[in-house]
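Fold this sequence, please.
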Amino acid sequence: MPFETLSVERDKNVGFLTINRPASMNALCAAFMGEAARALADFRDDESIRVLVIKGLPDCFAAGTDMSDLASDAKRAEFAQGVKAFDSFPKPIVAAVNGYAFGGGLELVLKSDVVIAADDARFGFPEITLGVLPQMGGAAALARRIGRAKAADLLLTARQMSAEEALACGLVSRIVDSDSVAETAAETAARIAQMPVAGTALVRQILEKAEENDTATALSVARLSLFSDDAKEGLTALRENRAPIFSQKAV
């Protein structure tokens, strides 16, 4: 079944999901979230895909969430299906952010592991102006990512954050020229895809635990990484002065 609100591509070990709702500046809706759940399931089950890149339009990542689209129980259920799919996606996600990342767009940024932002990108949660909260858990996720005080500033005032401010507070990973965002994101994803799958899975796990301030669990995961087959191969290759040959199997 073809997609109407997004497009998907594959390039070697990298999958690409492009939001495609230009008439609404890529605002997220129930239909998009339902289709995203299908696309993510396909990428999850495709063992050749090791990293996912999420993109928007050349001048807009995603400018919000279409709250009027969530009036019915059926629409809310479809939207929730997409939220669950993003939250449970097991592979690294790289976001390529041009222009606006507001509301749902910022929530997708927060669900990404690496965020490549254009120098003119803008971030914000305008939901408070409607008396509602971000619908994908974005309020708590923002506090975990950038701290309570900074998150409160954005959530309570609905102000916009520049790319420079986003980089300074740890919301984004890198800033590049707007013309280079997609290319840099693809290159970053390709580099991650070359890494051992078991290792990248453990990195994501330990980062999640770090966000939860669970130091004991984070340390146990770090120690566990030393006993994986990939770790043994990597350390052996180092001693033998050669390139490692990883198994590319998940733990």
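The two ends are 32 Å apart (CA to CA). The longest strand covers residues 6-11.
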